[in-house]
Amino acid sequence: MTNNGIQLTEEDITGIKVDAIVNAANNSLRGGGGVDGAIHRSAGPELLAECRTLGGCPTGEARITRGYNLPAAWVIHTVGPVWHGGTQGEPGLLARCYRSCFSLAQEHGVRNIAFPAISTGVYSYPKEEAARIAVQEARRALAENKTLAKILFVCFNQATKLAYQKALAEF
Length: 171
Ligand code: ADP
Fold this sequence. Notes:
Elements: E1 6-9, E2 20-24, H1 34-43, H2 45-52, E3 62-66, E4 74-78, H3 90-107, E5 112-115, H4 127-144, E6 150-154, H5 158-170
Bound molecules: adenosine-5'-diphosphate.
């Protein structure tokens, strides 16, 4: 396995000019704190208006909207699991988030996509374990989807960056 097509970046995800950015949303899809709040602020009120038409999103699934004022054309909203110690299906749910995002990306012809470290903020998922799942699913998507050329993982803090570096070096 190689890391071709996978890159780490420390930019704010709201400023990244890719086809799609991923939002770590909550079940209501009505905005929130962390990266969700930042994305809604930058995209403008039309994003919330479109999200309101979607009727929420179950954990592990994803929904796609336009990016409005963002440089990204699309926002893929996914709902990661809250960490409860790892015994409540958290790894499977987090992997499903990534797969749901990649599936929507494929349907919409997305060539490059940027992800925040889903669930590792307020939802408390351990960073290293989350990064391992993210990298594993990214490699799978790059192997299966020939349209997909680049996956950016946004490392908003040093601990997140170290976790991704470790995951990329592991396999
Ligand atoms: P969750 O509820 O899924 O844990 P959070 O938004 O609390 O979501 O955190 C997810 C990750 O997004 C964390 O690593 C956090 O540091 C990061 N993050 C917060 N704001 C931004 C941003 N503007 N761009 C990229 N990543 C961000």
